[in-house]
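go over this:
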Amino acid sequence: MIPAVLAGALFAFGLAISGMADPAKVTAFLDVTGHWDPTLAFVMFGAIAVHLPFVRLAKQRARPLFGDVFHWPDLKQIDGKLVVGSAVFGVGWGLSGYCPGPALASLVGGASSALVFVAAMVTGIAVTRRFVPAGADDR
C-alpha cells in the first residue's frame, strides 16, 4: 500500500507542477478552433516517454516488485462498453476540464468544482457497478 500512496502522491505533485490540475488548461487544450494551448500534449508525450521504458522492463520480469502477478489488459477488441465508456469520459472531461486524477488532486486542494466532479464520478461508478455485472463483457 505504501508504494501506491507514494506513486499517487508523485502523480498529484506532477499534475500540480505541470498545471494540469487546472481545468482551464484542459479546456484550452480541447479548444482547437480558438486559443489552443498545446501544453497538455507535451505533458502527455512526456508521460509516455517516461512510462514506455518501464513497461518494457516490467514485461521482461517474471513478477512485479510489489505483487504476485502483473495485471495486463487481456481484451484486445473494441466493443460497445469501450466506446460508450470512452464517450462518457470524453464528454465529462470536455465539459468539466477534469479527468479523475486531476480532479482528486484538485479536491485535496479545496476546489469546489472538483467536489462536484468527484461526486458525479463516484455516482457514475456506483451506478455502473449496480447495473453492469462484474466481469461482464461483450464477447
